[in-house]
Design goal:
This protein is an alpha/beta fold and about 325 residues long. It contains twelve helices and eleven strands.
Length: about 325
């Protein structure tokens, strides 16, 4: 079935999905899946043994969507809601009730779902700032690239970037990375007050040295070329264990991250899976334009994040 999703490329996602299939299937609240795309993604993820979806939607709308798409949803639990905002609130309520280990965006707007997630009453925020990670499968690149944050935090300050970086590091470990190498991106590799993102990059690296950020090697500021190209790093005489070998790219702001991710998608034929971290559960945040393979990879990532959290919680108990 995976071959049908992406006959060309997608090898990294297939490996990721295979790894997730070795973990326990997770229950996922699917918020407002009232179209073919969101229903099909959840159902196919169930067929692969990744998730057990609970659909939260107006019953008539979701049943009509399934009928039009030729999909059978009779075997899945359906939680009734009145409209999209209600779907988001009730999906988040399934998290607070301890019934699900992840959320999945259906056919509602991202703002509607995230509004319920961060709500003061009934929300599922933690002390960690919420951030988004793209997991990019770039043809010709050896391993997946995590790009953050290109979807949630528009112009993050230094304190926010600490959480953005830590969320991405934790994700990379959950995905099985043996060594996490984080490049803090800017337009250049020299630190200068004229470009504030270079100052913040340098500060983040020093914070990692002092143990304020853990679990990875950090270097920055780095331009994109000397973050991912060993040849470019060598020409610039940058000597570090990250330069030219980064597997996590931290962008200075949402605009830069969004343009980087979409450039890879449309110019390099990369696939982009998406996950939101920092809440009480991972949030599978997909776009209507995402391929089925990308949607399955996003579900696989959520499975691995949930498995890592269970393992961490068990180690604390013991």
């Amino acid at each position: 079935m995976l071959e049908e999703c992406a006959p060309v490329g997608g090898e990294k996602y297939r490996r990721l999905i295979s790894a997730a299939q070795g973990q326990t299937r997770i229950k996922v609240a699917v918020a407002h899946p009232c179209d073919d795309v969101s229903l099909r993604g959840a159902i196919e993820a169930h067929k692969l043994g990744l998730i057990e979806p609970i659909f939260v939607a107006p019953p008539e709308r979701v049943r009509n969507a399934a009928k039009e798409a030729g999909l059978d949803i009779s075997g899945f639990e359906l939680v009734e809601s009145a409209h999209s905002h209600d779907s988001a609130a009730k999906a988040v309520g399934l998290v607070t009730a301890g019934r699900v280990e992840a959320l999945m965006k259906g056919s509602l707007h991202t703002d509607e779902l995230m509004g319920a997630v961060v709500a003061r009453e009934g929300g599922i925020r933690t002390e960690r700032r919420i951030s988004h990670c793209f997991i990019m499968d770039v043809p010709g690149h050896q391993e997946p690239l995590i790009i953050t944050d290109a979807a949630i935090n528009i112009a993050p300050d230094l304190d926010t970037k600490v959480d953005i970086v830590q969320n991405a590091i934790d994700l990379a470990h959950a995905m099985g990375a043996e060594e996490v190498r984080v490049a803090i991106l800017s337009a250049m590799e020299m630190v200068t007050t004229k470009v504030p993102s270079t100052i913040e990059a340098a500060a983040l690296c020093k914070m990692a040295d002092r143990g304020q950020i853990t679990g990875a090697l950090l270097d920055g500021p780095l331009a994109l070329d000397n973050a991912i190209s060993p040849e470019a790093a060598a020409i610039k005489k940058i000597v570090s264990r990250v330069a030219g070998r980064a597997n996590v790219l931290v962008v200075p702001n949402l605009e830069a991250g969004n343009m980087l991710a979409k450039s890879l998608s449309f110019l390099a034929n990369a696939d982009a899976a998406g996950i939101v971290l920092g809440a009480r559960v991972p949030i599978i945040l997909t776009s209507r334009a995402d391929s089925l393979l990308s949607r399955l990879a996003s579900s696989a990532v959520a499975v691995m994040v949930a498995a890592a959290r269970r393992k961490s919680a068990a180690s604390i108990v013991h």
